[in-house]
Amino acid sequence: MSSKRSRVLRACVCLAALLLALGSAGLLAAAGSPRVQALLGLAMAGLAGWGWRALARLQWQAAAPPAGPALLLQQQQQELQQRLLLLEGELEHVPVALFRCGAGQPRALNARARRLLAPGGAQEPAQLLQELAEARGESGRELLQIATERGLERWLLAGSAMTLQGEPVRLLALLPLESALEAETLRAWRQLVHVLTHEIMNSLTPIASLARSAQELQSDAERAQDLTLALDTVARRAEALARFVADYRRVSDWPEPRPEPVELQALFARLQQLVGESWRARGGQARFEVEPATLTLMADPGQLEQALINLIKNAAEATAELARPSLQLQARLTRGGRLTISVRDNGPGVPQGLEQQIFMPFFSARSQAGGGAAAGIGLAVVRNLVHGMGGTVRYVKQPAGGACFVLSF
């Protein structure tokens, strides 16, 4: 680049000298015309200044030290050092405890990790380091319980294996969860107690009232019909309360899953045979896709099928009033290596603000939106089943509308 600039500057100096020479000849030729001589003089003065600046730049460039490979390497090293300092500063203040596990003992990488090992942090730092050393090195997550001076706390451990300078190492991150889990647990208990008391009181209040009325009607033979009606109402409310308890047991009392390899292509074929005809009869379509077709998942086949049937049933109810309902089940591997199963429909979707409540037992988005009574246990059962098999289920808002539930394993 510098040699090219030098050639350009030398060419500019030569051109200025040539034009000045031509201008001098023009001054001699226009001796009888003062006006022409004045114009040529001004032009020559401009040329002289231009040539002088080009010559000065050429001299400065010749005197400057050449920017060789050593200088470029030095500049790159300085830039790299600045980036490393910036990265170290960011890692130092990350609110996650970072550890590096290699051939020896795990080493704390930031201030949060050092505070966890210092007095006032973990009560048994050596035991914590031993647990970290034995933690799995591949990508994954597990829940650790760490005894601190504040009590037993839960932390989420995430690990990633890599190779640095030819040696295998593991980068581990510990995220504190106790405060967030306590707040979420209290909120869930409040919601559950609210639902239980509401449903139980809805049945017990009329039962108690009608029982007192029945006692009064026993002595009045003329009101035997009223007595029969009162006892019938008591019986129906008792049956409703029994159904509620049975539904609660369905949500909370599922058997332990028995994982085995599940061929998703065969599972989807069974589901399509089960529900495909009903969707076509309504003027719609149900698509089932597995990419690649050889995808296999370690899960309880019966519980996984039950979870997907519940989601398909919800999609059918959400699209009941549509002329062309659409259902799509897709199983694929994501870029992170996780297997996901998505269930989409073209219904109205979950109302705004209810996304976090739809998985709560006995909560129904359709009832909240004025769509009639619903048991509200389908999604709670789905989450319970999927979580028992080591997966997660989330509601994903679709830009084009409709509902989408994603199961990740």
Number of E-type strands: 12
Q: Rg, please? A: 39 Å
Number of helices: 11
Helix-residue proportion: 40-55%
Q: Describe the sheet with the most strands.
A: 5 strands, antiparallel
Distance from N terminus to C terminus (CA atoms, Å) equals: 55 Å
**Secondary-structure-derived class:** alpha+beta
Q: Let me know the average pLDDT.
A: 77
Uncertain runs with pLDDT below 50, 5 residues or more? 369-374
User: From N to C, what is the helix and strand string?
Assistant: HHHEEHHEEEHHEHEEHEEHHEE
Main sheet strand line-up: 2-1-5-4-3
DSSP strand (E) fraction? 15-25%
**How does the overall form come out from the CA principal axes?**
elongated
Describe the SSE topology:
Layout: H1 2-29, H2 34-63, H3 69-92, E1 97-101, E2 107-108, H4 111-117, H5 125-134, E3 140-148, E4 151-164, E5 167-176, H6 178-217, H7 224-252, E6 260-263, H8 264-281, E7 285-291, E8 296-299, H9 301-318, E9 326-333, E10 339-345, H10 365-368, H11 378-388, E11 392-395, E12 404-408
Parallel strand pairs: 7-9
Antiparallel strand pairs: 1-2, 1-5, 3-4, 4-5, 6-8, 9-10, 10-12, 11-12
Describe the fold and architecture.
It is a single chain. β4 and β5 form a beta hairpin. Residues 369-374 have low confidence and may be disordered. α1 (2-29) packs antiparallel against α2 and α9 runs antiparallel to α11. 54% of the residues lie in helices and 19% in strands. It is of the alpha+beta class.
